[in-house]
């Protein structure tokens, strides 16, 4: 491969990565929050998300913790962030929201459970 061909391949890859990154509004799912980022808590209790709606600043890290005896899965409506694994009692799952917007989510095991994260 020539140097020019290699450079084109790298540039193409960089453009593809940038475009893929634009499709997902919540970039870091199930990751530890970056240093200095405020963490917001959503409890899963009695087959409901509490609070049901949460407003956070851009860049905030939201952590869901299952307080029920039954498993739950946090799933983004519209696939704007990655779904959690099945959360057993006391398991947690976190997402850092890097772009403003309204993120509706639900439990894929119990779809009547819905919640909203509003990122400003």
Question: What order do the helices and strands come in, and which of them pair?
Answer:
Blueprint: H1 3-23, E1 28-29, E2 39-44, E3 49-50, E4 53-56, E5 61-66, E6 74-76, E7 92-96, E8 101-107, E9 114-119
Parallel strand pairs: 2-5, 4-9
Antiparallel strand pairs: 1-7, 2-3, 5-7, 6-8, 8-9
Question: Short description, anyone?
Answer:
It contains 1 helix and 9 strands. With 120 residues, it is of the alpha+beta class.
Task: Give your account of this protein's structure.
The longest helix is centred in the first third of the chain and has 21 residues, at 3-23. This protein has one helix at residues 3-23, and strands spanning 28-29, 39-44, 49-50, 53-56, 61-66, 74-76, 92-96, 101-107, 114-119. The radius of gyration is 17 Å and the shape is globular. It has a single domain (26-119), classed as Cupredoxins -  blue copper proteins (Immunoglobulin-like, Sandwich). It has a five-stranded mixed beta sheet with strand order 1-7-5-2-3, with no helix packed on it. With 120 residues, the chain is of the alpha+beta class. The protein contains one helix and nine strands, in the order H-E-E-E-E-E-E-E-E-E. A hairpin with a 6-residue loop joins strand 8 and strand 9.
């Amino acid at each position: 491969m020539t140097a020019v061909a290699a450079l084109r391949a790298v540039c193409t890859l960089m453009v593809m990565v940038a475009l893929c990154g634009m499709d997902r509004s919540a970039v870091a799912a199930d990751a530890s929050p970056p240093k200095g980022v405020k963490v917001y808590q959503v409890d899963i209790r009695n087959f409901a998300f509490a609070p049901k709606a949460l407003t956070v600043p851009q860049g905030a890290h939201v952590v869901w913790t299952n307080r029920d005896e039954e498993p739950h899965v946090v799933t983004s409506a519209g696939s704007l962030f990655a779904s959690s694994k099945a959360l057993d009692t006391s398991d947690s799952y976190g997402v850092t929201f890097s772009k403003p917007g309204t993120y509706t989510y639900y439990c894929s095991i119990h779809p009547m459970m819905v919640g909203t994260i509003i990122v400003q």
